[in-house]
Design goal:
There is one protein chain. The chain is about 30% helix and about 20% strand. The chain is α/β, with parallel strands linked by helices. The protein folds into two domains: about 45 residues, no CATH class; about 290 residues, TIM Barrel. The strands form two sheets. Strands 1-2-3-4-7-8-9-10-11-12 form a ten-stranded mixed sheet, with helices on one face. It has a two-stranded antiparallel ribbon with strand order 5-6. A hairpin with a 2-residue loop joins strand 2 and strand 3. Helix 4 packs across helix 5 and helix 6 packs parallel to helix 9.
């Protein structure tokens, strides 16, 4: 909408929002008072503080935000999203949510088991960067929180534009990793349009087994996902990694390691092994540490770079696969909910 402002006001607005990270339009002091009043009449600042925070013994911090999604007419569904800040030396990585809940229904993921509750706008995604404590200390971001980023790609792409634009956060795309379960049509768009790193949730090299836990395998088999990725150059600054959560007796055998080696042979990539975090009513247990190490060593000895990712934030339900977003609809008194009080102050 054209408000009659000079073009330079747009730069001023962007600087206040994305560099200074002000919390109100009134703080934009180099814009005239009348101009600020006009902006307030037409727009809202949009920042929304988290309603809860949990701190892990390892320094990981999980934030809880409320999200309101229109259902039509005057109806609004109130749900919750969670973001996780992971410290590692001088680095501060934010694990960002792109949806409220998730529709992909992976059997081992608390987010997927909770169902889908709404899309996030780019502003909701960016709010996670702006409204946490000490946002200026963030060094990296991973779109690995709640939701499948490629099922909300347009809004994710808009958020990435702000994060990487000179007039926005001015981050290098190398500071951002986007994860996907393997939504092939959107994956191609991402690979053509973005310079960010890619992480693919793989978890089993055999399609007939993968589909047991990951229904997406029916629509977009992992072999086809990898065939598409192979068409792109990974020798430069952009990287691709494959996430592999390990379950005892399901995907941690020598047979699985060898199949994974065949699947990825010749690719410039990395495999991250992730210890499974137990969830209710799920029959599998995490692989033993020595099994994970043997799996890692077999991949490395066959030319596939492989590491075991350190588990962070498990004690506050912030580790991989544990984000659940317990608030739904009118449960806005979440912080006083007895069942969850051990997680949030």
């Amino acid at each position: 909408m054209n408000c009659g402002f000079k073009p330079f006001v747009a730069k001023q607005l962007a600087h206040w929002l994305y560099v200074s990270k002000v919390r109100s339009i009134d703080e934009m002091t180099n814009i005239s008072k009348n101009g600020r009043e006009m902006i307030k009449h037409l727009y809202a600042h949009g920042a929304s503080a988290p309603i809860g925070k949990a701190e892990s013994t390892d320094g990981t911090v999980k934030y809880l935000f409320l999200n309101e999604a229109p259902l039509g007419g005057s109806l609004i569904e109130t749900s919750a999203i969670e973001s996780v800040m992971i410290p590692d030396g001088d680095r501060r990585t934010l694990c960002v949510s792109s949806q409220a809940g998730c529709a992909m229904n992976c059997k081992f993921c608390m987010t997927g088991r909770g169902g889908f509750h709404g899309q996030l706008m780019a502003s909701d995604i960016l709010n996670q960067f702006i409204s946490i404590e000490e946002p200026e200390k963030l060094s990296n971001a991973v779109f690995m929180g709640m939701g499948e980023p490629f099922n909300n790609y347009d809004q994710v792409a808009r958020a990435i534009e702000v994060l990487t634009a000179d007039w926005g956060f001015a981050w290098s795309p190398k500071r951002i990793t986007v994860s996907t379960i393997g939504v092939i049509p959107v994956l191609k768009r991402f690979l053509d349009e973005q310079k960010c790193h890619l992480a693919v949730s793989l978890h089993n090299p055999f399609g007939a087994e993968r589909v047991e836990f990951m229904p997406v395998e029916k629509a977009w088999p992992i072999k086809d996902v990898i065939a598409l990725i192979r068409q792109y150059d990974w020798s430069g600054q952009r990287r691709v990694s494959f996430e592999y959560t390990m379950f005892s007796g399901w995907n941690d055998s020598k047979r699985h390691a060898d199949a994974l080696i065949r699947l990825l042979k010749g690719m410039e990539c990395r495999v991250n092994l992730i210890r499974f975090h137990k969830i209710p009513d799920f029959p599998y247990a995490p692989s033993a540490q020595n099994v994970m190490e043997a799996f890692r060593d077999r991949l490395n000895s066959n030319g596939i770079t492989c590491t075991i990712r350190a588990s962070r934030g498990e004690d506050i339900m912030a580790a991989c696969g544990l984000l659940a977003g317990e608030v739904h609809k009118t449960e806005v008194n979440y912080l006083h909910n007895e069942e969850n009080s051990r997680y949030y102050d």
